[in-house]
């Protein structure tokens, strides 16, 4: 059975982790499959992505059975090569979703630990079930988080929160995660809520949504104020008067949903 499946319907890509017997734990093959799924969508005619996991958990972390193989190998050869731009394979598991030009929504339930937690951080938005548990789990195994989390966490929460979660490896509830900025919102059925949100996003101007995601990334990159302001102006200049913006105006005036040419 494949470790990851991707289905596209109504301009929304549904990416599911499909290893429920292992609580979707990540081994090297699954890491490859997650990254391949992200890369396959970069040129797709989509407007949003939903990440979810089959079974009892979104993703319970790294596959423990893989640890022995890691220990027996050359660790440097495994994690040091930059195989995906400035990242290695395991870091790209999370970062590939930030690199997509469209919004990504993670629907979280059950255990969201370690590798699963960092995968979720790669999404633009995280919707969690009230009983979901999240953890930076690596310290439990005498390791540090090394799957892109440290590049993403400082944009979401405070330093003391990152340190507490990293040092203790203690799971936190979804409500606490939301209070700390790690979860966007709670929903009894996170996949249903993620789907509704993705449908709402898919109804907006595709070019404006893509420009907004790129602009937010620039703003979060630490770029100089002048560069961020110029990026705002450049993005806006590329949208004003364009066919999609004109269709939005026409649709608003007519009280109807906009219809965008590509893929409609």
TrEMBL record:
GO terms for biological process: fatty acid beta-oxidation. Pathway: Lipid metabolism; fatty acid beta-oxidation. Pfam families: ECH_1 (PF00378). CDD domains: crotonase-like. Keywords: Fatty acid metabolism, Isomerase, Lipid metabolism. InterPro entries: ClpP/crotonase-like_dom_sf, Ech1-like, Enoyl-CoA_hyd/isom_CS, Enoyl-CoA_hydra/iso, Enoyl-CoA_hydra_C. The keyword Isomerase applies. Transmembrane segments: none annotated. Gene3D superfamilies: 2-enoyl-CoA Hydratase, Chain A, domain 1 (3.90.226.10), Lyase 2-enoyl-coa Hydratase, Chain A, domain 2 (1.10.12.10). The keyword Isomerase applies. GO terms for molecular function: isomerase activity. Belongs to the enoyl-CoA hydratase/isomerase family. This is Crotonase/enoyl-CoA hydratase family protein. It comes from Roseovarius spongiae.
């Amino acid at each position: 059975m494949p470790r990851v499946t991707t289905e596209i319907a109504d301009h929304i890509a549904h990416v599911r982790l499909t290893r429920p017997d292992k609580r979707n734990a990540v081994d090297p093959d699954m890491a490859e499959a997650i990254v391949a799924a992200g890369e396959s969508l970069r040129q797709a005619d989509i407007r949003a992505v939903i990440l979810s996991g089959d079974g009892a958990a979104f993703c319970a972390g790294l596959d423990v059975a893989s640890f022995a193989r890691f220990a027996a190998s050359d660790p440097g050869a495994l994690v040091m090569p930059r195989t995906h731009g400035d990242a290695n394979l395991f870091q790209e598991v999370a970062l590939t979703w930030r690199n997509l030009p469209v919004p990504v929504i993670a629907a979280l339930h059950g255990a969201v630990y370690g590798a699963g937690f960092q995968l979720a951080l790669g999404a633009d938005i995280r919707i969690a079930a009230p009983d979901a548990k999240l953890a930076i789990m690596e310290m439990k195994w005498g390791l540090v988080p090394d799957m892109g989390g440290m590049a993403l966490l400082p944009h979401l929460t405070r330093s003391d929160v990152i340190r507490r979660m990293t040092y203790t490896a203690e799971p936190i509830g979804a409500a606490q995660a939301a209070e700390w900025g790690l979860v966007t919102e709670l929903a009894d059925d996170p996949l249903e809520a993620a789907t509704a949100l993705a449908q709402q996003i898919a109804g907006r101007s595709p070019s404006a949504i893509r420009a907004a995601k790129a602009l937010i990334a620039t703003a979060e990159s630490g770029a100089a104020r002048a560069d961020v302001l110029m990026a705002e102006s450049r993005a806006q200049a590329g949208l004003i008067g364009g066919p999609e913006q004109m269709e939005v105006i026409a649709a608003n005036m007519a009280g109807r949903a906009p219809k965008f040419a590509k893929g409609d």
